[in-house]
Amino acid sequence: MTINRRQFVKRGAAAGAGLMIGVRLTGPLAWAQESDAGAKKPAPNPFIAYVNVRPDGHISLIVAKSEMGQGIKTGLAMILAEEAEVDFNAVSVQQADTRPDLYAHLGTGGSGSTMENFTPLRRAGATVRELMITAAASRWNVPSAECHAKQGTVVHLKSSRKATYGELVDAASKLPLPDQEKVHLKNASDFKLIGHATPRVDVPSKVNGSAQFGIDVRVPEMLFAMVARCPTFGGKPSHFNAEKAKAVSGVHDVFEIPALPGDKFTAGGIAVVADSTWAAMKGREALEITWDHGTAASESSDGMREALRTAASTPGKRVRNDGDVDAVLSNGARKVEALYELPLLAHATMEPMNITVHARGNDAEVWAPTQSPDWVQGTVAQVLGLKPEKVIVHTTLMGGGFGRRYMADFPAEAAQIAKVAGKPVQLVWSREDDMTHDFYRPASCHGMRGAVDANGHPTAWVHTLASTSIRGYWDPKASPESQEVGGAKEMPYAIPNVRLEFNPVASAVPRAWWRSVENSFNGFAVESFIDELAAAAGKDPVEFRKNLLVKSANWKPKSEDDPDPARLRAVLELAAAKAGWGKPLPKGRGRGVAAFASFGSYFAEVAEVTVKGGEFKVDRIVAAVDCGQIVNPESVRSQTEGAIIYGLSAALKNEITIKNGAVEQTNFDGYDPIRINEAPEIEVYLVSSQEDPGGMGEPGLPPLAPAVANAIFAATGQRLRKLPFQLKA
Amino acid sequence: MSAIHLIVNNRPHDLEIAPDTPLLWVLRDKLNLTGTKYGCGMGLCGACTVHLDGEAVRACQTPVSTVGAKKITTIEGLSQDNTHPVQQAWIAEQVPQCGYCQPGQIMSAAALLAKTPKPSDDQIETAMVGNLCRCGMYQRIRRAIHRAASTAGKGA
Q1: In chain B, what are the domains?
Q2: Shortest alpha-carbon distance between residue A213 and chain B (Å)
Q3: How far apart are CA A249 and CA A303, in angstroms?
Q4: Which of A202, A207, A348 sits opposite B134 (nearest CB)?
Q5: Which range, of A202-206, A263-267, A606-610, averages the lowest pLDDT?
Q6: Element spanning A356, H or E
């Protein structure tokens, strides 16, 4: 359990591991075994992955990125295989276990896996290729320049000699490493894999039931557990009677676990341990518990909405202040005002939260469907009183993440239970647990004010953002706006006077990152309000936006999140062209557009809706995507479709409401996502680009809701400013 | 506890089990057939869809005592080697993302196609409306069902 980096590599070498290279984000590549030479104190480990070329020529990429359906295992293998000059099938990706001594950046989130790994993995692949060529050239005593690599084989054309990577790996592993900055990377025009649709490696196991998700983990002698938690946030059991629960056949034990503060945020409650999931469920049902509902028992959505409205109408902390909005808004220009409201949202992954923990006294083993295995490791270790290195976390496939599986609450609960149970325990959350004890997307309200001059040019933009902020929940001392203002602060339109201000609203409801985080609400406010300004100016919504997406000759991003207006404009034009923007539609139908950049990628979406009486249907979404250099177009399309449907559920149907301090929705009846009969046709158009890759998991979502709202406005003249949308008949 | 006899994927099983136990948990926890998924426990999401004598049912809403002599088919019994036309179509259209709902989707689609070899879009929607996909792969599901309908019975 406590192998250090040196031993890890030595052990590998003893087993005839071939060539092993550590891949780091920046700085020189290194032989893995050289990395800790002379290191006295374990410094933060620089490696994000290891590349192992085996004596049979097969390449393993060992990386701690979680697969939650985004196709990352396929994409990373493509990048490595491309530069290594091997067939895609010659690379397999192994899920690394938690070894912070071996792997840095174990988390999977922020749409970052491709962005982070693209260049380092290209360099690692190119290193493999160059080492193999050098080894072959040396063996044949010919210049390296006369050799080339193709499909895992080095070829010397002049002498018709060939050697496979497997034949060369021993010699290659004894060569000095080339400088990472100097390895030759292929020209994009020579790419055979990157940019070419490649079937995902995880798909076959997902159509025959063999894919193993967290909830499918089966360990000898394992038990199953469920926890009864107080429905009210912050509440706890004041008294419980376990007699009837213990009488349920299959129930082994019933005990209380305390709530854990800090970054775990568990509710605490009564744990029921049984020999099957069903027995644990039945046992939990049979518990008699009196709850102390705590101090948040009076919280309600009505109160939250009022507080948000007030906060969005009150000057707040200035986050951006260009020019002088007050002067423009007081001088009699044509003013536009709007208030947008977005509710709390649950992630509602298809696989409810679950985790399996085996606490063995001196160490522990964990099987976790998690986006943050290192956080799971630290949390479980802390609860069990172990050092982190005594806990190993195996990351399983997960049935959706969307940010929910970044949290360490369910791992902490499972560790508390496993400590008592003494056997491996799988903690399973029911759908009701999952829905009522999530970390929700913050609720927000956006007070928007703008002005348009006599020529139809917008002259002022004020965005007063109020939200039940994420940081406000996690750390009352932190700046509450730090994870709330993204996408509003970078409002990309060239308006001379712009102000963004923020007011936090307190709540006991747990909040955290939901697919696209604050971009999900700021995208709605920004792209709805620019549409309102266009209407006030009497301009076409596409033309109006295009004219404000100006990239001056001396344009520079103000921050790394600042979008390039030219790229945003290009996707806007592409989506409009593909959607037939401007072509007349029959009465009762409407077309709306939104364009938004986040996570380094640029999206424009055009929605087409049909309105009939008080009902409407979204018929078609046309999306244009610029995510920089595309790795797997198949995954880019799939993620775009997924983000659109996820966003549509939020736009049309889903809302978490609070009554008496508890969530009112408990299952897919009260929180019903989009179903197949409501799913529009989606067309995805990709921009060919060699810019650095952007993220793809999240940025397709923010433009969806405003595009639909703007389409409904086009069809009916009604502005829908509150999610989920409700049309007036 | 009752003695229950089940035929799952053409194999007989004799179990001693509480008769109200949903078939879902018998499959998952007793028979180790974890391809059938728990999603909601209320028949709202379709992740637990299996066949009883070829009919798509929600295993979470099926007490094991009510199965009787009906033959149970789970995703593992559809075909292990992905040769079923629905599985083939699912691969060709690259339907799954996270994949958690897909056993249920596939079992619903296979039951539909067994009865309605050339379903219309409306028939597909009616048969599949009970199967949620949080990754939003509905367009691919629709296409894959049409693909399976057009390829089924053509050799293979």
Answers
A1: 2-78 (3.10.20.30), 85-151 (1.10.150.120)
A2: 8
A3: 44
A4: A348
A5: A263-267
A6: strand A354-359
